[in-house]
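Task card 7
Instruction: Convert sequence to structure tokens.
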Amino acid sequence: MFIKRTNLQNYVEYYLLKVSIFMVYLLGRSFANFLGEILIFVFYYFIPIRKKQVLENIALSFPEKTKKQINRIAKNTYRTFMKVFIDMFFISKMPDSKIEKMLIYDEEMIGKTLAKGKGLVLLSAHFGNWELSALAFAKRYTVATIVSKQSNAFIDKMLNGFRNRKGFNIIDFNRDDKISFRHIVKALRKNQVFAILGDQDAGHEGIFLPFFGRLVSTPRGPAFFALRAGSPIFTAFGVRQEDGSMKMKIEELAMPNTGDDEKDIEIINSIYNKRLEEVIRENPDQWFWFHRRWNTRPKK
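Output:
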């Protein structure tokens, strides 16, 4: 049953977050990492938020792995995203020049692509530290993106304010609103980079394609925008390094031209799913296994 949020609840959450950010930054990264390890232990063993979902996702994706190996990946997944969470506290205080240096990628390839003046769709995922990857990318290029709306309006405003200050062009997206689609296509035609994460369940409006041996509902949007604007599309997955920096694997995706938009969208998304699966297999604890990625099933 849906429970309506109250302003009091929103205010309490918002100010608790503000105080937490202040305290973590005041006490320093070493203490934050120490506290993070304690929280990982608590969340994994005593307050197992989404633990069942994580273990199920990993087990079904890696049927060849033992229970011990699956549990190790799951626990390391909690550790990875605790580090990402802690990183974001400190990144908010970093100078832009330092943020930019924390992302390693093929700058020449991106530069040559944008020199053609057709924009660029950067199709990524909830992998590594996707927020840092996007922030660092936005230091050099104009990056347009759409973000998930937070249930707490105050936190949503705070996060989007931070993103705007760091160089993002945040597009308020509604899939049923033609104006939203126009804004995205317009950004691409202005030679901006449109960065989007394509690895969440898209419901029955998505296209069902293989991913780890099972069909998943994959968003049509990124491929549709690239086709509509005539923009190139790259897959981009940033692998988190030990020092917290990101090494981004960027590959161009050859645009199909079958004459059938639906077929072209299917081809693009099939390649995306395949590349994402490959990078997850290489670094299984860096993907956000907490998602209910296989939740929507094809209609019979």
